[in-house]
């Protein structure tokens, strides 16, 4: 039920933004709609490969190994391992999300996977080196990396405390 | 245009690698566990993926319209003008609201640094974009993890951009005070 409401709200938002764009100019609306649809079509096969792939990858990974390293009972140590894994995961979004989803489907604990995902989002080293350092003052990049270190632990611990998901 | 091409190509080999590993994994599952297990995993994952399609489509459209209705210059001015805790709050909100890839986000952050925002504000902004952005949540995370996981993941991340910004300010103040001591000594 709640997810139907979310869907409806999202599409109301789409309609409101589209209308706002159309009021400003018809070209603005057309460009926006075309780009949105194009992005969707471009991303669709990639995400599908990742989603389906993560299911098969999870199925062949040894479950005991995943459960003993980052399973629900591994606590803060599992969160630390997951954080480290997130930091060294190379590649683009498909890789990060596929590995995270495979870990979750393959027996990883939700707080541990949240820590992985948070670490990967905040300080995947390859992304830091390839993108951020080229576009931001290095001082700010390193400061950001430094203050981000505790965040995956806090996210994972927060999920453990509230007991969700 | 360059921006788009680079983003796409950087994702391309990632997808190819995951696709290759997935094919091998799928073949192993098929040979080891049989066709029934193979099909069960496929239908299960495609089911989640299919049910997330409306959200993904909406996410793409919201991003495309927001990019046009919320110009980067406006965001840079809004964030660059504020300081203090209000600055961190606005930076967090704007980081969550501004769609786009790294090539959009870092230049915006760079711009409001140039407009006089402190590093803490820029860090709160980038952290919010990374952790709270609806773009990533709707289009990427939902089909992979399902809505329940994503909801709780984002909920525990809500305080983190403020925290990162505040920690950064603290670290800068600490460094400045150390330098001050050195200068006195």
The major beta sheet of chain B can be summarized as: none
Task: Compute the CA-based radius of gyration of chain B.
Answer: 21 Å
Q: End-to-end span of chain A in angstroms?
A: 18 Å
End-to-end separation of chain B? 54 Å
How does this structure look, described?
- The complex is a heterodimer of chains A (165) and B (185).
- Chain A has 165 residues and is mainly α.
- Chain A has two domains: 2-58; 62-162, no CATH class.
- Chain A contains nine helices and no strands.
- Chain A has helices at 2-24, 26-60, 63-70, 75-88, 93-105, 110-123, 125-135, 138-148, 151-162.
- In chain A, α1 packs antiparallel against α2 and α2 crosses α5 (93-105).
- Chain A is globular, with a radius of gyration of 19 Å.
- Chain A starts with a helix and ends with a helix.
- Chain B is an all-alpha fold.
- Chain B has one domain.
- In chain B, 90% of the residues lie in helices and 0% in strands.
- In chain B, α5 (102-114) runs antiparallel to α6.
- The N and C termini of chain B lie far apart (54 Å).
- At the A-B interface, α1, α2, α5, α6 and α7 of A face α1, α2, α5, α6 and α7 of B.
